[in-house]
Design a protein that fits this description.
single chain, 386 residues, alpha/beta, TIM Barrel, seven-stranded parallel beta sheet, 11 helices, 18 strands
Length: 386
C-alpha cells in the first residue's frame, strides 16, 4: 500500500512512522507510516512527506489498529470488579473494550453516563441479566427476583447499539443456590426478544454438563473463559471434546477471558495443537489486576497465546479486526484503513520482559509485546498516563 500522490501533509497533522505497520483487516504488514488528521486516519503509506505538527518515529516497534478487548471490566462505580478504563486500559494499547456485565437494567443509565459517555476509551456493554449488575457483594444471580427479563429487554431497547449483548455466567460462585437452568431460560428469552448475543460463562458442575450448556447456545453467542482448567473443560485427556467442535461448527464463538482463573497453558496448548483457535483474545481485566507486576493487559495476554502455539497471523486479528466485527464496529475500529477512526497502538517486543505466566503460575519462555504509545481518536496517550 502506498500513499496517494494527492495526499498532502497539513501543519496540524500527526505522522507516526514505524518499522512495521500491521493491519490484519487490510493485509498490510511492513515498514510505513500513518497520517492522522483530527480524529481520522488519512492514509497509510511507505513514504509520506511534509511537515506535520508532530512526527513520531518508532523504527523498532509495530504500529497496529487500537486493540479491542472483548471482555474486561471498565467501570468507575457500582461494580465490584470495575477499573477506570482511561487509567488502566487505554494507556496499555486498548482503545475499545466490552464490559462483561458491570451494569444491569437498574444501574444502566448511570453506567452509560459515567463510563460509555464519560470515558475517552470506547466502551460497549454486555448488560448483566441481573438487574443490579455487579453492584452487590455476593453473586449477581443469587436472588432469582433480580433476573428480570422485562427490565433487561427494556434497557436494551432504550440503549441502542451501546448495549452489545447480554452477559450471563452460571458458575456456582455467581448463582449460589439459584437453578442455573432457569437462569439460562431467562437469558435466552431476553436474547431472543432483543436479537442480541450472549456473552456466556459456563458452569463447572456435574449436574449441568458443559455439553448441555453449549447445546443451548445459538450462532453468534460467545463462550468466554475457554482455556480454563476445570473438571468439565474443553480439553480432556489431551483432546478437545466433541461438544466444543460441534458448538464451533454451529457458529458459537469462543473467547479467552484470561482473568485470574481462566488461562492455563496446558489447556490452550493442547487445543491450539489440535487446530482449535479462540475467536477473540481478551483479558477479563478487573480490580485485582491493578498494580500487578508484570501489569496484566491485552499485549501481554496476546503474547501468552503466541507462547502457547498460535501464530502472529492468527493472534493479531483476534485483538483487532475480529472483535471489532463482532461488536459491529468494522470499518471504524480495528483497522488502519483510510477514513477509519484514528485509534492506534504502538507495541515493542521486549526479549527481556518478565516471564509469561498462566493463572496457575506455569511459565513459558519468550519475550512479550509491550505498549509504548496509544492514539485514541487522534490524541496521544502514553503507557504511564493516569
Amino acid at each position: 500500500m502506498t500513499v496517494d500522490s494527492h495526499v498532502h501533509v497539513l501543519p496540524d497533522d500527526l505522522l507516526i512512522r514505524a518499522g512495521r505497520v500491521v493491519c490484519p483487516a487490510t493485509g498490510r504488514d511492513g515498514p510505513g507510516a500513518a497520517l492522522v488528521r483530527g480524529n481520522r486516519i488519512v492514509t497509510i503509506g511507505d513514504e509520506i512527506v511534509g511537515e506535520a505538527r508532530e512526527t513520531l518515529d518508532f523504527p523498532d516497534a509495530m504500529l497496529l489498529p487500537g486493540l479491542v478487548d472483548m471482555h474486561a471490566h471498565p467501570a468507575h462505580e457500582a461494580s465490584k470488579y470495575g477499573i477506570a478504563p482511561d487509567t488502566h486500559i487505554l494507556p496499555r494499547g486498548t482503545t475499545t473494550v466490552l464490559s462483561q456485565g458491570d451494569a444491569g437494567a437498574n444501574n444502566w443509565p448511570r453506567y452509560r453516563e459515567s463510563v460509555i459517555e464519560g470515558a475517552r476509551t470506547r466502551v460497549r456493554l454486555a448488560i448483566n441479566l441481573s438487574a443490579p449488575g455487579e453492584s452487590m457483594p455476593g453473586g449477581c444471580f443469587e436472588n432469582l427476583a433480580d433476573v428480570d427479563v422485562d427490565a433487561c429487554v427494556a434497557a436494551i431497547e432504550e440503549g441502542d447499539d451501546t448495549i452489545w449483548g447480554i452477559a450471563v455466567t452460571i458458575g456456582t460462585t455467581v448463582t449460589g443456590d439459584t437453578d442455573p437452568h432457569e437462569i439460562m431460560r431467562r437469558a435466552l428469552n431476553a436474547a431472543d426478544r432483543t436479537g442480541r448475543p450472549l456473552l456466556f460463562g459456563s458452569r463447572n458442575h456435574p449436574e449441568f454438563p458443559l455439553a448441555e450448556q453449549l447445546a443451548l447456545l445459538r450462532p453468534g453467542d460467545v463462550v468466554t473463559y475457554c482455556f480454563r482448567n476445570d473438571v468439565d473443560r474443553m480439553v480432556s485427556d489431551g483432546r478437545v471434546q466433541d461438544e466444543i467442535w460441534e458448538a464451533q461448527e454451529r457458529g458459537v464463538l469462543f473467547d479467552v477471558g484470561h482473568g485470574m482463573n481462566s488461562l492455563h497453558f496446558a489447556v490452550a496448548e493442547a487445543a491450539i495443537a489440535q487446530g482449535f483457535l479462540p475467536d477473540t483474545i481478551s483479558t477479563d481485566q478487573y480490580h485485582r489486576h491493578v498494580g500487578s507486576i508484570p501489569q496484566h493487559d491485552l499485549p501481554r495476554t496476546l503474547s501468552k497465546l503466541l507462547a502457547a502455539g498460535m501464530s502472529e497471523a492468527d493472534v493479531l486479528p483476534r485483538v483487532t479486526a475480529r472483535p471489532a466485527a463482532l461488536l459491529g464496529l468494522s470499518g471504524e475500529v480495528g483497522t488502519l484503513a483510510s477514513g477509519a477512526c484514528a485509534d492506534l497502538a504502538v507495541l515493542r517486543w521486549n526479549t527481556e520482559a518478565l516471564p509469561l505466566r498462566d493463572v496457575a503460575g506455569a511459565e513459558r519462555p519468550g519475550g512479550c509485546w509491550e505498549p509504548i504509545l496509544t492514539v485514541r481518536a487522534g490524541e496521544l496517550i502514553r503507557p504511564d498516563a493516569t
